[in-house]
Design brief:
The chain has about 270 residues and is an alpha+beta fold. It has five helices and eight strands. The chain has helices spanning about 5-25, 80-90, 130-145, 160-165, 235-240; strands at about 75-80, 105-115, 120-125, 195, 205, 210-215, 245, 255-260. The strands form three sheets. Strands 1-2-3 form a three-stranded antiparallel β-sheet, with helices on one face. It has a three-stranded antiparallel β-sheet with strand order 4-8-7, with helices on one face.
Length: about 270
């Protein structure tokens, strides 16, 4: 005998069967989504704040070594140092009876042109009242390029005037030793620091004690020559303009300038 189900029951059964089939599918057959890890993010670049450059100190300008400034005469006048005075006394250049004292004298330091055309530093010891005049004279000779062999104080020759002249040394003060003196100390321009002998070899004097040219007759003729003193020439004119006298003696004395004999306080013409 056939049992007939109601239509409603049949539809319900079909619906349940369809639902069961749908739920029993293998989940592996469907798409799967892998979990994703968070990706690192690159920071956005930042623009640095503008900075003000620190001020720089400019390098000092260095003078061009190829064009050095020419040196001048650079004169310096000062008191005779104690050490130098002691050497002068020890060498006999000052002794009892010599008129000028350390307080009366000055040390003049000044550049001069030597016989090689170079610049040398010279020293003259002179009376204080002629120091400024001496500076003017030798500054002009330097500027004009007149050559001077050397210019050293006579104590460097142990006070020996003959040795100083033989070395062609331009010198001033010397209260000469008795065997070399040619004028009384009180009246002597050299002993008072008011006389200068310039380039003795090129400008010798006639020494009547030996009736000979001293230090040598080699340049006795008054002709043009390097380092010579000639009447009317540069050296002569420069000294005369200051009131000095050339070869103020009865015999030829081409090296010698002084401010008068007997020596007295001096006032330059300028």
């Amino acid at each position: 005998m056939t049992v007939r189900r109601p239509l409603t029951a049949l539809l319900t059964a079909l619906l349940l069967a369809t639902t069961a089939c749908s739920g029993s599918q293998d989940s592996s057959t469907g798409p799967t989504v892998e979990p994703t890890e968070p990706q690192p993010t690159t920071p956005e670049p930042t623009t640095p704040e503008p900075t003000t450059p620190e001020p720089t100190t400019p390098e000092p300008t260095t003078p061009d070594p190829t064009t050095p400034e020419p040196p001048g005469a650079d004169p310096v006048v000062r008191e005779v140092p104690v050490e130098q005075w002691e050497e002068m006394v020890a060498s006999g250049m000052w002794r009892e009876g010599c008129p000028a004292t350390r307080e009366d004298l000055r040390r003049v330091e000044i550049n001069h042109v030597d016989f090689d055309g170079g610049i040398a530093r010279g020293v003259l010891v002179v009376n204080a009242d002629v120091a400024d005049s001496v500076v003017r004279v030798f500054t002009r000779l330097f500027e004009e390029g007149f050559p001077i062999r050397r210019m050293r104080p006579v104590e460097e020759y142990d006070g020996d005037n003959d040795a100083s002249m033989a070395d062609d040394n331009t010198a001033a003060y010397n209260c000469r030793r008795p065997d070399q003196i040619n004028a009384p100390e009180d009246e002597s321009p050299h002993a008072n620091g008011r006389a200068i002998d310039v380039n003795p070899l090129e400008n010798p004097w006639m020494d009547l004690r030996c009736d000979c040219w001293s230090p040598s007759a080699e340049f006795a003729a008054r002709t043009e020559g390097r380092g010579k003193v000639l009447e009317g020439g540069l050296v002569w004119q420069t000294f005369v303009d200051e009131g000095w006298i050339w070869q103020n003696i009865d015999v030829p004395d081409y090296m010698h300038f002084d401010t008068g004999y007997p020596s007295e306080p001096f006032t330059p013409r300028r």
